[in-house]
Predict the structure.
Amino acid sequence: MKVLLVGSGGREHAIAWKIKQSPKLDKLYIAPGNAGTQSLGINLNISDTDIDALLNFAKERDIDLTIVGPEAPLASGIVDVFSEAKLPIFGPRAAAARLESSKSFAKKVMKKWDIPTASYTSFDEPLEAIAYIDDISSFPTVVKADGLAAGKGVYICQNRLEAVSAINEIMVEKVFGTAGTTLVIEEFLDGWELSAFVFTDGKSVSEIVAACDYKRIGEGDTGPNTGGMGAYSPPHIWNQKIKDEIMNLVVKPVIDGMRKEYEAFTGTLFAGMMITKDGPKVIEFNCRLGDPETQVLLPLLKSDLLDVAVACANGTLKTSDVEWSTDASVAIVVASGGYPNSYSTGHKISGLGNLDGKTKIFHAGTTTNPEGDVITNGGRVLSINAVSENMELAKSTAYADARKIFFKDIYMRNDIAKDIG
Ligand code: AMP
Ligand code: GLY
């Protein structure tokens, strides 16, 4: 098969690494990819949001399957455009991707099928949102931009002043552009957070798996939100009861509801969950694999990812098609100092040749310079993953290699998968 993979992060390097193991793969193209994907296929100089260029390439090269990593092209309708051109593609159509691209749509779906989530109200006018805040008696409360804001459009507000300032940033200053035209104010959920995933063809779903992501930049979950600074799987609180509850109360109602009332959801459903004292509640839905969750989960996938993606795209998925290992998996993200605010790039990465082969290195913000050196090219630069029979060993193996890597201003959290017992 000739496969086109869309995206350039650590998630896409992990997808490329997994696809590369399939005996069915003939040729892999990555648009645009990074220095890591370059050794697994052919990187293309096409942006992951340039749907016309991606379509032309897929037509010219007779691509058998396109796999989409990030949310932006899904929200813009890449699956609709490819499907009309009869090109098989893995991921939801734009109308189904609204589960991620519109928080108010996701809330409407959850209300309709009684899916447990934080109570909320949405607003189109800043003054109405402020009036609502004036009536709130208990904090924290959560203020969110309705649209896609790269994980940064969420404010956990401890008092009225913080909430008013969040409303101003989102709706008046428009720091997230049109993603902030509508705003959601919701109940603060307290508990253990985890990211749950299923593959689906719109009807059948695979067994549910989960990972914990470390979203804040600082140790002890301090500082601003990032795309994710590390992850581990399975979550230490993961058990059959939680799995069954998420499957029966969340995943199945959403997949069935989307198919019956809106647009069938195909691809990967990612449910961001809070496990509260009253049971699991949905924080948000995403319409794709997570980053860095993918870097911990795909090394645990026993099945051929190409088979799974084809079955999801063709509507022939069987639950038994997707098998997972029960091992422990940890990923440490190494980032450019300064991220998620401003940081410098172009620094030579050393130490990659000194690793002992027990870890997998997934590149994210990397590229090569004209001399062929791997250099930094983004905020999150690499993730270092280890799989083991137990979490302690997976963690110490991943950290041992992460600490052998060096570039100017390198930063990592030292508490990934720590204190989880
Ligand atoms: P999101 O962009 O919706 O994933 O939100 C980013 C992060 O904010 C989540 O991963 C949670 O850690 C936190 N968050 C979002 N909504 C809530 C909520 N209702 N209660 C508590 N934390 C939340
Ligand atoms: N790591 C969270 C996400 O991919 O949205």
Residues 59 and 85 are 8 Å apart (CA to CA). Residues 190-319 form a domain with the D-amino Acid Aminotransferase; Chain A, domain 1 fold (CATH 3.30.470.20). The pocket of glycine (ligand 2) is lined by residues 151, 213, 228, 286, 290-291, 293 (CB under 6 Å). The first strand starts at residue 2 and ends at 7.
